[in-house]
Design goal:
The structure holds 2 protein chains of 2 kinds. Chain A is α/β, with parallel strands linked by helices. In chain A, helix 1 links the parallel strand 1 and strand 2. In chain B, the strands form 4 sheets. Chain B has a 7-stranded antiparallel β-sheet with strand order 8-3-10-1-16-15-17. By secondary structure, chain B is α+β, with helices and mostly antiparallel strands. Chain B is built from 11 helices and 18 strands. In chain B, strand 13 and strand 14 form a beta hairpin. In chain B, helix 6 crosses helix 7. The chains are: A alpha/beta, B alpha+beta. At the A-B interface, loops of A face helix 11 of B.
Amino acid sequence: MKTINAKNSEYRELNRLIRDCNDNCTLKDCLGQRFIGAGMSDRNITVEGTPGNALGAYLNNANITVKGNAQDAVGDTMNDGRITIYGNIGDAAGYAMRGGEIYIKGNAGYRAGIHMKEYKDKVPVIVIGGKAGSFLGEYQAGGIIIVLGIGISDSQIVGNFPCTGMHGGKMLLRSDCKNVIFPKNVNTVHLSGEQLNGLSVYISEFCKLFGYDFKTIINSDFTLITPDSKNPYKQMYVMN
Amino acid sequence: MKKEGQIRIPSGCAISAVISKDGERMSGESITNSMRPMHDRSNGLGGGFAAYGIYPEHKDEYAFHIFFDDNVTRETCERFLKEGFEMVKAELIPTRKIPEITDEPLIWRYFLSPLKSVLASMQIDEKEFVVRTVMKINTEIKGAYVFSSGKNMGAFKAVGFPEDVGRFYRLEDYGAYMWTAHGRYPTNTPGWWGGAHPFALLDYSVVHNGEISSYDANRRFIEMFGYKCNLQTDTEVITYIADYLLRRQELTLEETACVIAAPFWDTIRRKPEEEMKKLSYLRNVFSGLLITGPFSIILGFKGGLMALNDRLKLRSMVVGEKGDKVFIASEEAAIRTMQPELDRIYSPAGGQPVIVKVKEGIVL
């Protein structure tokens, strides 16, 4: 494990140091450097401090672990691999993500999972431990977004306008969602923890990563949201 | 080169602020350094700072900061100022020669006291007189531009990266209870000293990250009330809107936020009756002042600030707290530069104003 002192280094230089280190590395005193790990494969990167925007953009199959908070656009257009955030995360996490996994212990800002997509076996996953801001899953076209709302005492674990423009993929919220207003183009189904089938593996993985008891977390009401047809916006823009 | 106001090019930006609720004076070094990790949000075409509480020896006079193209313009402008003000002090603003900042205009500072006789004959109060003076100079005296006109506060701005602008103006020599800062990435205008942020009028100053799409609608409305939008930059109009709503219409800060980042009608309809009535009233009466498009702004005023995002939150903004100090910035990294350990850090929701004031009873 190599340690890289990120203090005062510019992002291009920092990424060069990470690339040159063909093994695992830890960045110390990171402060706002953008694009950390962008496009990288086959390595484990641990970040201490506050990484800048677009952390792990185009990530191929590397693993990035952040010990604190992350800023905006984490995992932008990520293809494969895993990003684990022990703190909170800024806006537009997983923007246009097409594969891989993002696990966030804390809260997510606005527009998490905006325009996520999937193709065959490439199914991206975002799991948010706390709450998510407004426009969660905006234009979601594929993939899985899970919000667990752990320790959130407010009635809502998502902000306003979730699933706006959703036309693919799945969203799972650990809540009965009584106070949440969804658009008319999606279907909501209430499930118990035993009915989650394939989705529970991601919650189990989340619990292992951050030290929660899976049985306690799963013992709750859930709401599964999916688009209400293959083409929910038919005839909205053109006479198709 | 064409200047601001003569050309419109179809903004990423960076903002940062710190306020001490105890009114403790802080040097400008820390706020300048906070802009470093956000360097790539600017492109070197503008940086600036607003500092509150920096002129305690002249706190009863209006501090005008003015750019001049040359000394002839300066003399013309000074003659005009002397017609309406007692000029208590006139001096060059101290700067440091550094290779990163070039082509500077003449940068002067005046401490001015409006002449009572002039106010009496015009039958207006002194603030209105100051606003009219600023508008007149910026519109009619070619080559002169007043970029700061408040009491016991000042804006400092230039073409360059903000961290260089801070060094250029020797901000480490000033002590302010509140600082705001801006790094500019102009998208619609070419980038000139006057067009850098903050935009300031009286004690109000605005730093802004974003690009408002309602600019022309807002400009048409505000120009009906004597304001002149000379620079075609959206931040100028936000500053005049703040002055109009807060000073002339006497709205509260919260009400002002409900005008410029009004909730959606859908949201208003779900509010309790009293609140629904009030929000509908503000949206209807001041519909021309609704600001649409992405923005995160910090409005500074005597004794405090208000940070506000557009209601869709299309720009980032983070707030950190430590003891009596509150930090606001486009990125968490900027806040951590000023204060690595925080009591609390959070992102306010879109349209939710964050208002921070110096504690009552503290003399500023």
